[in-house]
Amino acid sequence: MAEDAKRMDRTVMVVGLSTRADERDVFEFFSGRAGTVKDVQIIRDARTGKSKGVCFVEFSTAEGMVKSLSMTGQTIKGARVQVQQSQVAEGRGTHASRGKF
């Protein structure tokens, strides 16, 4: 669980993402400006596979995450995005993160 907490300190949630944007677009957008991107996960509809306009970006360092927060209002694939610090809501998360399988 300590590793999950550290990971969340390096992760942002991006909302307002264009449905045309893919992981590479997001990776390239943040890499040159905020820091080294470790992972990008676009949230997709389970049935159709289409983007829901939300993604999570994990940086290698907390510094990269902090820098990325200032990028709110910039555009990716023509859509203005909001960058927010990612948080796990109390009582939410995966069963594995709570020690349940």
TrEMBL record:
Q: Which Pfam family is one of those matched by this entry?
A: RRM_1
Q: Where is the RRM domain?
A: 10-88
Q: Which UniProt keywords apply?
A: RNA-binding
SUPFAM superfamilies, alphabetically? RNA-binding domain, RBD
Keyword RNA-binding in record:
yes
Any idea what this protein is called?
Answer: RNA-binding protein rsd1
- What is the taxonomic lineage of the source species? Eukaryota, Sar, Alveolata, Dinophyceae, Suessiales
